[in-house]
Design a protein that fits this description.
290 residues, mainly alpha, 0% strand
């Protein structure tokens, strides 16, 4: 391939020709038609099964139902806030343990991380709730914290280890202790690499709060379940799903937007921007060079 033919292309991708563009256009039109047909079929089924009748949507007009949903949403956000903060703290502690120079500490942290990562979060929640007889909210938060904290510990450890080794060696050469090197040199640089994964794991924690309804915690899904199983409103299961799902999706998208905003703010932070180096200026020659 000549240099001229590589203009506008990469090693793995060539600019499509006219026939390829026409074929891609046909693929796009066919895919769009199929998607629209699927959406139309779903809408037809919803109307055919009387999911849009006023009897099934009337409950959402009542103040008591609205307060029930808002109370459930508030409980969901409360459980998520506790779990998120505690998971980040536990993840940091376990990551420090896995990076420790002391072998017993490192082994203990490794065992805890691998155990809680392998244990299904629902099993941990049920064990804490049933066997330890803990109240629903602490049981839910504890289960989410143990699982997500162990996952975040690996995220933190991998992020710190991804920083160029020379950064830590230079800090040690300046006389800094390991705690100072990790806190002030390695961790700030690793935040950029870790942030998307951290937010993704927090999204998982937010969605897993819905497991609280299995232990009678009155969160958002539990409130929806109470409404959907009400015979007085003709079992409005689909309407409840259509109301609750966008709210869950919106909260997850809000977390993703927050991560993007933080990343952009970090890139504009003078502390993380590269310092410009001025052009070299002629200096005084040493006596030997005259």
């Amino acid at each position: 391939m000549t240099a001229h033919s590589t203009t506008g292309a990469t090693v793995l991708y060539d600019i499509p020709g006219p026939q390829t563009r026409k074929r891609h256009l046909v693929y796009g039109i066919v895919s769009t038609i199929l998607i629209l047909a699927l959406v139309g079929w779903v809408i037809y089924l919803l109307f055919d099964t009387d999911q849009f009748t006023s009897a099934k949507w009337t409950p959402f007009e009542y103040k008591g139902i609205q307060e029930l949903l808002l109370r459930g949403l508030g409980n969901t956000l409360k459980a998520f806030a506790y779990a998120a903060v505690l998971s980040l703290a536990l993840g940091a502690v376990l990551a420090v343990g896995r990076l420790s120079d002391h072998r017993p500490v490192r082994w203990l942290a490794t065992i805890l991380v691998e155990f809680f990562r392998a244990m299904p979060v629902l099993v941990m929640i049920f064990f804490i709730f049933v066997a330890l007889k803990v109240q629903p909210l602490p049981a839910l938060v504890a289960g989410l914290t143990l699982y997500n904290g162990s996952v975040l510990a690996e995220v933190f450890r991998t992020g710190i280890n991804s920083v160029e080794r020379g950064q830590g060696e230079a800090a040690f050469a300046l006389g800094m202790r390991k705690t100072q090197v990790t806190t002030f040199v390695l961790a700030p640089q690793a935040v950029r690499a870790m942030l998307p994964t951290i937010i993704s794991q927090l999204v998982v924690a937010l969605k897993d709060t819905s497991l609280g309804y299995l232990i009678t915690y009155e969160e958002f899904l539990h409130a929806g379940k109470l409404i959907a199983s009400n015979l007085d409103y003709d079992l409005p299961f689909i309407p409840v799903v259509m109301v609750i799902s966008p709210i869950y999706i919106g909260m997850c998208m809000l977390l993703s937007w927050f991560a993007t905003w933080v990343a952009k703010r970090q890139r504009r932070n003078p502390k993380t921007e590269a310092t410009g180096v001025g052009p070299a200026q002629p200096g005084t020659l040493m006596p030997e060079a005259r």
